[in-house]
Design goal:
alpha+beta; Serine Threonine Protein Phosphatase 5, Tetratricopeptide repeat; two-stranded antiparallel ribbon; 20 helices; globular
Length: about 450
């Protein structure tokens, strides 16, 4: 890894001088630069210092980010009351993100007394400005009757707005409402449409429901192969009901080749989650298996690990398509890469590429190749055991026109050392297609 030195450009120094003279916009700019590591090495302490100065002078962006720092405990002691203080000031200035966060804090009683009326008030303000998370939360609150009389029609209205912006939870909820005729006319075609949108983004509930709808022939012709596909996707994420159904499908050979080992595996996993029927059926299937097949199936159960939501099997590609707000599939790509910031990937505080520049992600064993409008990057995942999330990441190499040959050789060396030899042919092809011509006389 390489580290970028602190920026000493004349423009940045000019902003520092203005900030020291009390200019609130310069203070906000400097604070955000330290927070994001965009122009300087990331430094939460410096970020907090400058953002507070700007926030005290009324800069709404500074108030939002200072509130978020206290909410997350980034560079400051985590303090929900202090977070609520700054987010409230920004919310009262009309910032939709601050309004949404404040609504969530009232909903959960985090830093403020729990108050559903206040929660729905702030979520509505944010939702009316297009905040997708608040649109979803507002729909959920109307559906549950929290902060307002239960109103499924109003719930469907807000969930639809969030679903049309690409929110998978809203899409799944709306699909369920169409399936049940709750707040909207019952319509299996609409149900399957919205469940598919959510399922393709990794929503486990919609994956399971989609499997059930294909198995029953609701909203689409009965198709056990398609049902098995979606039950498998949900089962891999640990959904016990999907695991049970998938085990039954393998046992019957409905839509898939009959496979008692696979049937045993999925039923055993469902049984581990507490399914009594699954345990009984597993034991019945074992009677048709040889002892070696049972041992093989039990080993499959031992080594099985749940797939993280939105995680993609090695070798598959994700085509990046902007949603209505330009973020839908970008956020999915951010999850695949393991980068918590949906707007950028950093190495030692320097932004390497903007998530909005991504064209395609190819998933590899232990990493991925990210093709962007500025080049192709080899990403290595570092898994840490924090709720099975990809919590760390490392950009291990990219080619650069200024030193293309050296970068290509470095790419190959780093890919091999990190167990990503399968990335080399593609990196070479990409180098030949894009960089190679630039080197020709």
């Amino acid at each position: 890894m390489w580290r970028r030195k602190r920026d000493t450009s004349p423009e940045f120094q000019r902003l520092i001088a203005l900030a020291r003279q009390g200019d609130p916009w310069a203070q906000a700019h400097i604070g955000l630069s330290y927070l994001n590591g965009k122009e300087v090495q990331r430094d939460y302490e410096e970020a907090g210092k400058w953002l507070r100065l700007a926030a005290e002078q009324g800069i709404v962006e500074a108030r939002v980010w200072l509130g978020m720092m206290y909410l997350d405990g980034d560079g400051v002691r985590q303090d929900y009351k202090e977070a609520a203080k700054w987010l409230r000031l920004a919310a009262e200035q009309g910032d939709p993100y601050a309004q949404g966060y404040l609504g969530a804090m009232y909903d959960e009683g985090c830093g403020v007394p729990q108050d559903y009326l206040e929660a729905i008030k702030w979520h509505r303000k944010a939702a009316e400005k297009g905040n997708v998370k608040s649109q979803y939360e507002l729909g959920c609150m109307y559906a549950a009757g929290n902060g307002a009389p239960q109103d499924y029609g109003e719930a469907a209205k807000w969930l639809r707005l969030a679903a049309e912006q690409g929110d998978p939870d809203a899409q799944g909820y709306l699909g369920a409402m169409y399936d049940e005729g709750c707040g909207v006319p019952q319509d299996y075609l609409e149900a399957i449409k919205w469940h598919r949108e959510a399922a393709e983004k990794g929503n486990v509930k919609s994956q399971y429901e989609l499997g059930c709808m294909y198995a029953a022939g609701n909203g689409a012709p009965q198709d056990y192969g398609e049902a098995a596909k979606w039950f498998h996707a949900a089962a891999e994420q640990g959904d016990a009901s999907a695991q049970f159904n998938l085990g039954c499908i393998y046992a019957d050979g409905a839509g898939v080749p009959q496979d008692f080992c696979e049937a045993y595996k999925w039923l055993a996993l469902a049984a581990k989650a507490g399914g009594k029927d699954a345990a009984k059926l597993r034991d019945e299937i074992a009677a048709f298996m040889t002892s070696s097949q049972v041992r093989e199936a039990e080993q499959l159960v031992v080594v099985w690990q749940p797939v993280r939501e939105n995680e993609v099997p090695p070798g598959e590609k994700i085509q990046i398509r902007p949603g209505k707000d330009g973020r839908t599939d970008i956020e999915v790509a951010a999850v695949v890469i393991g980068e918590p910031d949906p707007y950028g990937v950093y190495v030692d505080s320097e932004r390497i590429f903007d998530m909005r520049e991504i064209i395609e992600v190819t998933v590899l064993n232990g990493g991925c190749i990210v093709e962007t409008s500025r080049g192709e990057f080899c990403i290595r995942m570092l898994r840490e055991n924090y709720n099975t999330q990809l919590d760390s990441y490392a950009v291990v190499c990219s080619y650069r026109r200024g030193d293309a040959i050296a970068a290509l050789l470095a790419s190959a060396k780093i890919a091999i050392s990190n167990g990503m030899a399968e990335a080399i042919p593609r990196l070479v092809r990409r180098w030949m297609d894009v960089v190679g011509p630039a080197l020709e006389p």
